[in-house]
């Protein structure tokens, strides 16, 4: 016996929305002024499909930002920030984040409305990052006098610069190891 019709339709609608969001990322990364019609064409869906799913271009942009923020939050969760040893969690999270940020660079650069779910997800990611850094400090991986919010900002900058310097998305594990090594040991002797 096959799937119930409603479930099959929902799965089809979800695939259609995913295709639109993936196409929006590609098209808008190249041309931020691209039209809904250009995005629909790149997604391989009818213009009416994209308009049925998104009331206007702004709602598509908001959905794109939210989808990317959710994927970023999932990447952090998959690194087990609360339970894995801090160094393991930092490496896993960094490799995961590099993959998501590499695939969704345009969407993750969009400014989020401060009251949006995307902004709340980013605040939670920031909080979880500081929690992992706190655990790393407890394990003496980070100096006890370090300003952890500053360390978080430096860590984010290292990720951003790594992505700019490696647009082809080099091996995320190797790049994550390099980022963590730089964050924890800098560029001094023995680094």
UniProtKB/TrEMBL annotation:
SUPFAM superfamilies: Homeodomain-like (SSF46689)
Residues in HTH tetR-type domain copies: 14-72
Keywords: DNA-binding, Transcription, Transcription regulation
Pfam families reported in the protein's UniProt record: TetR_N
PROSITE patterns: HTH_TETR_2
UniProt superkingdom: Bacteria
DNA-binding region: 35-54
UniProt protein name: Helix-turn-helix domain containing protein
Organism: Streptomyces castrisilvae
């Amino acid at each position: 016996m096959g799937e119930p019709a409603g479930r099959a339709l929902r799965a089809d609608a979800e695939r259609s929305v995913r295709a639109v969001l993936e196409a929006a990322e590609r098209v808008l990364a190249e041309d931020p002024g691209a039209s809904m019609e250009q995005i629909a064409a790149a997604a391989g869906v009818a213009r009416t499909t994209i308009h049925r799913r998104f009331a206007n271009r702004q709602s598509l942009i908001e959905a794109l930002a939210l989808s990317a923020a959710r994927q970023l939050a999932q990447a952090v969760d998959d690194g087990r920030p609360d339970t894995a040893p801090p160094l393991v969690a930092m490496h896993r999270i960094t490799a995961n984040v590099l993959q998501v940020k590499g695939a969704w660079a345009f969407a993750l650069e969009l400014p989020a409305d401060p009251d949006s779910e995307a902004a709340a997800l980013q605040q939670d990611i920031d909080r979880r990052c500081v929690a992992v850094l706190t655990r790393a400090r407890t394990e003496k991986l980070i100096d006890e006098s370090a300003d952890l919010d500053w360390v978080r900002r430096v860590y984010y900058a290292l990720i951003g610069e790594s992505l700019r310097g490696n647009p082809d998305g080099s091996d995320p594990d190797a790049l994550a190891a390099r980022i963590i090594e730089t964050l924890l040991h800098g560029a001094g002797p023995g680094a």
